[in-house]
Amino acid sequence: MPNRSKPAPPPSPDAPAEHRAAPGTLWLAATPIGNLEDITLRTLRVLREARWVACEDTRRTAKLLEHHGITAHTISYHEHNERQRVPQLVAALERGESVVLVTDAGTPLISDPGFRLVRAAVEQHIRVVPLPGPSAVLAALAASGLPSNEFLFAGFLPARRAERRRALERLGAEARTVVLFEAPHRLAASLADAAEILGPRSAAVGRELTKLYEQFSRGTLPELAELFAAAPVRGEITLVIGPAGAGELQQPAGAAAAQSGAPTQDAHSGAARAPLAERVAELMRADGLSRNFALKQAARERGMTRREAYQQLLTERGVQPG
Question: Which of 134, 152, 179 is the last residue of a domain?
Fold first, then answer.
């Protein structure tokens, strides 16, 4: 086997088949988005057994393979050589050789190359098998604190301002949570445009997910625009924007039934019993929420409307509601 740090020469589409074996399998393997431990046992097994590992950057994939003690034939597969590589890899698959497609981070084809290869394999009746795993989209959505029962992944916003604003305008009537990728040097400008076009929707910015300096910032779009205008950021960015017309956090379908009786408790110890003002202050301090957003979340925890929570807050402060 060749050294794992040196990519093997690409398979030739004209190489003769040693025997008429059944076609191989094209595996679509999700790889870590930061922490190298975030990879499944199944994916590690397939990487060890595969004939070819097609990767966006062979040097980056070599680090992952070396970390897990895997020696493999690697071959570059990226947006600039995709047309050339597809027939080579399909030929290898037709000879019965297995191919694992990986991207630099996360799940292949999600804002990354791979569609042409998968389409060609499907057309040739070659087995295509996904190997689920890390996804910046799902990681950011799950931790955003925004509705997750329905969402739209819209990839990267356009780099040019006029095109970006048009894209945001198209999202203006979107009734689902929207997940986007953004380059760090464009984050402040994109948030400013989103705040102007979409208004004060709830949002979250996930930075460097699963890495040492992972950070979540939550608030309204204007609040986040102000926050990130003050200082530039580095690293991989995932932006989550709440749905249009959602003035407060929504529960997933079926969750309302759990709140029809006494308020249910969540992971925050005693959250439903503590004075409302204390809970709002805790959310602002621990989760970095704005006062308005913290009040909405505290209301949701107690099965109250935002208006009811606001009136209770006034009562706790000794102010007679108007």
Answer: 134
